[in-house]
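Q: Can I see a sequence and its folded structure?
A: Here is a first one.
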Amino acid sequence: MGGKISSSSYGSDYSGAYTASDAEVDQTLWQDDDMLIVFSAGNDGSGARTIGHPGHSKHALTVGALGANTSNSMSNSVIWCSSRGPTSDGRRKPDIMAPGVGIVSARGNTINTNPPSDPNQATTQTMDGTSMATPITAGGAALARQYFEDGFYPTGTSTLPDARSPLGAELKAVLLNGTAFIGGAPDNNYGWGRVWLDNNLFFPGDARKLRSFAKRQDVGIAQGETDEYTVQVAAGQEFRATLTWYDPPAAPGLAGRALINDLDLEVVAGANTYKGNVFSGAQSATGGSADTINPVEQVRLTSPTAGTYTIRVRGTQVPGDGSPYSERQGYALAVSAGGSASAVSAAPATVSAANVAGEITVTASAVGGATGYQLYRADGTCTQANALDFQLVEHGNGPALIDALTQGGYTYAYKVRGVDAN
């Protein structure tokens, strides 16, 4: 199947523009929904606009480095050499932080004999910098991926029918949705904060639950469309929603806005509406303007009021670049909040499908406690499809759902999940 998480600790100095290496990363991710690419921010800090390439790209998860205290315990302070944002077009970078001082790893060299001719060849070394923080973050991403593939999402207990491979943008959203806000986060020194898996991956007994909604590029939203989700939020626990997406690469050498397809995150909580990336300090504020340059948007409320929240993903500008499917934009939305156990009593049964003029209507039996239903699709027949390949294509209030974005000549398998807002 090939690797789905790439960790790289190299790059060139900041050039003042979007480069060919940035475009190469973004092109790779645009063409491969399943991939997450993690890059070091570089060690050219502490000034602004020192993020190297291709950490400067739109869609790499770019990692900055944190220091260590005198007791060698973890510090929440960025080390002096960690490169800082913003990018040439004003995007927030780095994306995330991880420890980068006193990290022990395998020592590299140019000896390729096997068995080693030098007894010191297979040794370790202690190093500092964003090159060390990056594989720590990639390792966290691998654990998060395993959480999904082992079927821990959404119940927190490993359940075989729930096993699914997360999309690359989905992993990115989950990681950024769980960070510890440190320093001045969100900003161009600390990004969205320190990697913290336990703050987002739900297990029985945790106070906050994770909801994840992710769509591939070919079933994403078009310009002017809006996808809407509801989540029940309890008071007393942080609410956070993070939207990420991989849009087509921009032209190398561009100094202006690199974003081509612009989505927007919006959260409605009672009488208040919050736009993605409109912050006052470390939490979201009402008002403000929609973000037009970043392919990551977040809403965070440290003391939310209890109620049913509506979360919208808007296709504000999706012109594409002329390549296949670029007039639609896939995305990932991760939401975490305090909530109660799901009231859904069982999985939907007696699922049937009918092809009507190229649109597939999938109907399942209603289940107790469900207030909505999600339709997942994979290539192949029901007996041939890889269980890990099912991805969200549609959702609605009733157990009859229409997949209107099929391709002629393909065979599809479907699953239906009953959900509530918890």
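Q: Show me another, different protein.
A: A second, unrelated one:
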Amino acid sequence: MNRMKKFPKVSGKKIILHFLIPYIILMLITHSISLFTSYKTLDVMKREAVTKNIEGLNQTKDILEQRLKEVDLFINQLLNTPRIQNYQSVVNPYEGKSTYHTIELLEELYDYREFNNFIYDYYLYYHKSDLVITANTTYKMPSFYSEMYGYKEIDVKEWRSFLMGSFHHKKVIPSQVMNVKNQTRSMMTYVYSLGMPFSSHGAIVILINNDEIGNMFGKQGNSDDGWAYIAEENGKILTSLSWSDEEIVTFDIPENQQQGMIKERIHSKDMIVTYTKSNYNNWVYVTVQPTSTVMNSVNNTRNTTLISLILSLIIGVVIAVYLANRNSRPLTLIIRKLMVRTDTEMIRSKDAYGLIEGTILHLSNNNHELEKRIKEHIPILRLTFFDHLLKGDFTSEQDMEKLLNHTGISIAGDYYCVAIFHLK
């Protein structure tokens, strides 16, 4: 009974994988390098986005500081005006010489009416006469407070008491809602006392529209979320604005850092808090924005990079499979022919190249074995040759030469000599 031949288990899939795996490894290496490079690039872009955000906030701070310096210059000019200081002693502004002093003061204030468009308006209050003087006219404090500029949360007595209760130098009242000529506006107020701390009987009040400050911040990014505020060194908010209806949340700013960025989770959103401090008045400028807004360009670049890497990986796999299949096809055909035409029973390699190597070695061994056997039978082949030659069995020289090639006999020459011995 013949034993069935066991062929090596070398399938076409294994051959394809043999070519495919190096392509995949090479592709993974190149994509890993690209991914690492992209990660570093995005990290640099994140730092640049934060730096750009801080620079924008510093620009807002510098502009506002410049305007505030102009306000201080304006105040100093008023404080250094003799008529303004001397009018503190007037009790009855519309009697006798006081009337002329009042008219002269109005004329002088008129020249300052458009000194700075950052200032919404200003007025002087004199306690002895309970008079308010603007660039255009005069009022008694009660009528002025009710008709022109009056806080909703503070009555006229409280406001008068505040102005005269202590000496004020660059006193800033946080933004509050005011009744401004029958309209409602949010105003930040500067108060400067006239005279000396021990003999002050008046004050300069500067009104700054909160909208002007908000315009300096501008709308951050393309998002409607977030807010901004300016606070004193102790954390007290001076003015704020919101780009949405969310509640404004304040933060403890590090004391040892002039500017920086903090990541916070607020209202179930990831937010970036950017801050910078002023050396001019120690105010702290803060903006709070969604991380997605600050990192908008970074997120777009990251998404584009990720999509590109995925697409290139898919295309690379398809190309790798195609190349592996095309390059493995000749080898697969060779293996199939070897398995069909060659005795591969003794070759136990599961690798295609191992099978080819084993087959070649097997054929080489068979060839050597055949040559050895032929050499052992050369004497018999020679006798057979001479037997056929004497009997005339060769029909042509070609038949004779075929047998001569295996006997090692050469009969090449121009002449031949034949000797026949008959032995008994």
